[in-house]
Amino acid sequence: MLFTSLGPAADPHFAQILLDLQKAAYAVEAELLGDDRIPPLNETLTGLAAFRGYWVVAWDGVQLFGAVAWDDHGDQLEIDRLMVAPAAHRRGVGNALVGCVIRAAGNRPIHTATGRDNLPAIRLYEKDGFRAVGDEEVPPGIWITRLVRTA
After folding, report:
1. Rounded to whole angstroms, how far apart are CA atoms 85 and 83?
2. N or C: more exposed end of the chain, with fewer CB within 10 A?
3. Are 110 and 134 in contact (CB under 8 A)?
4. Beta strands at 77-84 and 63-72: parallel, antiparallel or unpaired
């Protein structure tokens, strides 16, 4: 598996491939949550390319298997999105991508959130040292769990 730091603003063709991955990955989460109103499912190419944080993407040959994007706020990092192709689930892709963010963070804390009922994602984060710090309803009827990893 090859990891690169290519982001969607660099190439419109890549942005479309990344958006397709995002929709496939978050469709799985929507099914787990029983609600398809989660924002990544409705994002456009323009919205995806507008994110100005950091990206790491995972390739297997020419197939995009996963991606993680995060913001660096100086004293902490915040994972904006983590997505793994459904065909690559349970193959260590998500763990490897989170590991890239952990290395980028150094001794700084990392914050993230996922659907409260997305137990596979919560377990992945907990395995990497994150702990749940609370639940929040955003938008009405959709609950997320906020997680943090401290150094």
Report:
1. 7
2. C
3. no
4. antiparallel
Residue 118's φ and ψ, nearest 5 degrees, are -90, 75
Please check whether residue 146 lies inside any domain of the structure: no
Total structural domains within the chain: 1
Q: Is residue 129 part of a domain?
A: no
Residue 95, in any domain of the structure: yes
- For residue 133, CA distances in Å to 58, 59, 73, 112 come to 29, 32, 19, 10
Contact 149, 110 (CB under 8 A): yes
CATH of the domain at 20: 3.40.630.30
pLDDT tens column, 54-76: 999 999 988 999 999 999 999 99
22 found inside a domain: yes
The position carrying tokens 């660096």 is 72
Domain residue limits at 51: 2-108
Which pTM was predicted? 0.94
Retrieve residue 72's tokens: 């660096």
